């Protein structure tokens, strides 16, 4: 089946069988076949590791960007909440000053 072929190919069993056939026919020696197989294994492991590193790097970058966006939104929310408080304080100060002036004029 396709699944079995995929698993055998991923693990290198198909390549090993192919190289063993070459040894039987005399196309290459056992040492050459083993060297080719080991080179293939190392290359495959390097490709897998590179892909995994790329995925984890992309994931970390996406998380960092999301965190930065969340911080920006949070700062904007805090600034928006703080702005009305400042305005109310200024209005209260102006009202107090007006009341004080009115009281001073009455005396």
UniProtKB/TrEMBL annotation:
Protein name: 30S ribosomal protein S16
Domain of life: Bacteria
Record flagged with keyword Ribosomal protein: yes
Bias (Acidic residues) ranges: 87-107
Keywords assigned by UniProt, alphabetized: Ribonucleoprotein, Ribosomal protein
Upper taxonomic lineage: Bacteria, Pseudomonadati, Bacteroidota, Flavobacteriia, Flavobacteriales
Region described as Disordered: spans on this chain: 82-107
A single Gene Ontology CC term: ribosome
